[in-house]
Amino acid sequence: MITMHNESAPVVKDLYVKNTVSKSLTVSYLFWGGIILLLLPGLVHAYLLMPFPGSQNLNAITVSYYLEKIVTPLRILGGLLIVCYVIFYFSRDSRRRKIVKASVLGLGLISFYFTDFKFQAERMFEEPQTIKFANFINNSVPESTVIIGVVSNGVAKAYPLNYLGYHHKIQDNVGNQPVLVTYCTMCRSGRVYNPVFNGVRQNFRLVGARHYNAVIEDETTKTWWYQADGKAAVGQLKGSQLQEIPYEQSTLAAWISKHPGSLILQPDHHYLNNYNELKNYDRQQAVDKDSTLKNKDSLMRKSWVVGLVINGQAKAYDWRRLFKKRFVNDNFNQTNLLLTLEKDSLTYHSFDRSVNGKVLHFNLDKSGQLTDLETASLWDWDGLSTSGALKGNRLNKVQSYQEYWHSWKYFHPNTLFWKDL
Fold this sequence. Notes:
Elements: H1 8-49, H2 61-88, H3 95-118, H4 121-124, E1 133-134, E2 146-152, E3 155-160, H5 161-167, E4 169-174, E5 177-184, E6 189-194, E7 196-197, E8 200-201, E9 204-210, E10 213-218, E11 224-226, E12 232-234, E13 243-244, E14 248-251, H6 252-258, E15 263-265, H7 272-277, E16 304-310, E17 313-318, H8 319-325, E18 327-332, E19 335-341, E20 348-352, E21 354-355, E22 358-359, E23 362-364, E24 370-372, E25 378-379, E26 385-387, E27 396-397, E28 401-404, H9 405-411, E29 416-418
């Protein structure tokens, strides 16, 4: 009996194995490619726009901006790939692979919930649902609360920091002047801007943070703006700057003493728990480790400074030293400055101490009142001389900001630093 050898069998077997492997790889590419497109862009985007370790030190605002625009299309494509896998290949997959892929998809959906809902900036720090003001008689805000105060066209309004700190921005009007009142707790930076740009009043949403500073987006052009300096960082209006509106930071009691008719922002009852989390924010000063600093001129990241920008040049004043001295007569970029603190140690002022072409030097008398050494005139905390030879004269206010050192230094890299030698 003769046995015939089928030489084609190994070839067919080889082709079958190769075809099976190829199909298996195609299935894997289809599923895992879908997972990558569905999850990775969103995770990277969330990482760059939230204060995760290392994320805020990257110069990635442009990447973040354009990544946000393509996240949704990439997710749709990724979702379609996964749907194709489920329809055509899921039933043929091994039980073990089904479990692995289903688990990965489940974990991915959980991460999607956190990145796109739970930890999305505009959901974490929502817009106020009710903006309500009261006069001092009907006010419910403690007088010790630190506020951002704005005056326009004879109308004064006060915005408590713990409310601003949660919402990050309040879009309002003061004396018919549109205002965008902002505050970033990661920078301790308060700013008030005119939201009207190119004749259009912009509505802003909170995008996230870069370099530990809030980034906001205008509704019309989708440009991204830094809160700390009002500059357009990326988008259609890149390089533009929002007009700044003067404001003061003080305790509510100090503000009311100057503006007794001021309106005061009241708490939105929808966010009382969020406000309570920031209840002592305005008192938490980064001074607990100062005694361990070898160089007394050194500052920690969250050391408070008072910053000014005059004729394009920035300068920072160490709050700790200002707190001890209570007042500083300084000369900066051809401007004669007076920086001083009120008795509450939280309300600060900055003035130009030149009056009628004459430079004055100031001191605090035993009762804590401002006096000038040249005429011994008394001055109130609004810069008005109330008695003495200069009675009726007023010091011009200079806009200044209380901010964390790391923020001021980043947004003003060439800043000078005041040292009390």
